[in-house]
């Protein structure tokens, strides 16, 4: 089954962009996924193809019009999840990426200017307001590319090794353990001895311990969720210390 990606954007020339090279590009050539970039201006009805207007109540910038965006959304399949890229949205996580990648595809609505008229989300509650991170970009296109890349690499056959998409950051609630490769000695720094031992059980234990320690130190937000879930029994009640 081909994973179908539809992007509603004011800049369709940005796609597939970097998704046309490397693993994603080869998968696109094989037909593992498809990319359709739809020009939002095509759904404007005035001769100037107007897609935005000034904010109600005043303020800087322009706001994307709900009538134009509504017609754009009506033109796409409703069988796929629809994401609207906006810094007001919930930061997307690997768990959601994996769920999207397992489905028929995704439609991504790219924000611009001061964002969307809020009535759009009232009229289309199935649209998920999503952000890439706690940052503000010039538009949703670059965030959409990142999300599509995260999905495409999980499609069957895209990555060489089946385990490549499993043993990495965020898949089990932790950031990934540190990696090393040859040369064994570089500028007086050596690869940890356990990784050269050939003892797979010890290597697995070391990697798990390092993943936990690095997550605790670098991402206390992830560690709090991970340690809380780990201490939660199947009944849903907390264990007593």
TrEMBL record:
Oligomeric form and interacting partners: Homodimer.
Gene: trmD
Enzyme Commission designation: 2.1.1.228
Keywords: Cytoplasm, Methyltransferase, S-adenosyl-L-methionine, Transferase, tRNA processing
Name listed for the protein in its UniProt record: tRNA (guanine-N(1)-)-methyltransferase
CDD domains (UniProt xref): TrmD-like
Catalysis: reaction(s): guanosine(37) in tRNA + S-adenosyl-L-methionine = N(1)-methylguanosine(37) in tRNA + S-adenosyl-L-homocysteine + H(+)
Binding site for S-adenosyl-L-methionine: 111
Gene Ontology CC: one annotated term: cytosol
NCBIfam families named in the record: PRK00026.1, trmD
Limits of the tRNA methyltransferase TRMD/TRM10-type domain: 6-224
UniProt keyword Membrane, yes or no: no
Homology family: Belongs to the RNA methyltransferase TrmD family.
Intracellular or extracellular location(s): Cytoplasm
Function: Specifically methylates guanosine-37 in various tRNAs.
GO biological process: tRNA N1-guanine methylation
Disordered: annotated segments: 221-241
Molecular function (Gene Ontology), one example: tRNA (guanine(37)-N1)-methyltransferase activity
Native source species: Qipengyuania pelagi
Superkingdom of origin: Bacteria
Lineage: Bacteria, Pseudomonadati, Pseudomonadota, Alphaproteobacteria, Sphingomonadales
């Amino acid at each position: 089954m081909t994973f179908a990606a539809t992007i509603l954007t004011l800049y369709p020339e940005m796609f597939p962009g970097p998704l046309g090279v490397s693993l994603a590009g080869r998968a696109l050539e094989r037909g593992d996924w498809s990319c359709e970039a739809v020009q939002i201006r095509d759904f404007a009805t005035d001769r100037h193809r107007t897609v935005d207007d000034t904010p109600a109540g005043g303020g800087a910038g322009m706001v994307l019009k709900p009538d134009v965006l509504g017609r754009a959304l009506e033109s796409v399949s409703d069988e796929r999840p629809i994401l609207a890229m906006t810094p007001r949205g919930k930061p997307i996580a690997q768990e959601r990426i994996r769920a999207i990648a397992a489905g028929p595809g995704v439609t991504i609505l790219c924000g611009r200017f001061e964002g969307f008229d809020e009535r759009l989300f009232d009229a289309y509650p199935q649209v998920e307001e999503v952000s890439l991170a706690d940052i503000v970009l010039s538009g949703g296109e670059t965030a959409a590319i990142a999300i599509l890349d995260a999905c495409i690499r999980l499609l069957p056959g895209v990555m060489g090794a089946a385990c490549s998409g499993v043993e990495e950051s965020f898949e089990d609630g932790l950031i990934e353990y540190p990696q090393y490769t040859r040369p064994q000695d570089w500028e007086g720094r050596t690869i940890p001895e356990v990784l050269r031992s050939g003892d797979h059980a010890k290597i697995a234990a070391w990697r798990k311990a390092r993943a936990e320690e690095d997550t605790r130190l670098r991402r206390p937000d992830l560690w709090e969720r991970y340690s809380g879930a780990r201490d939660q029994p199947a009944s849903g009640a907390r264990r007593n210390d």
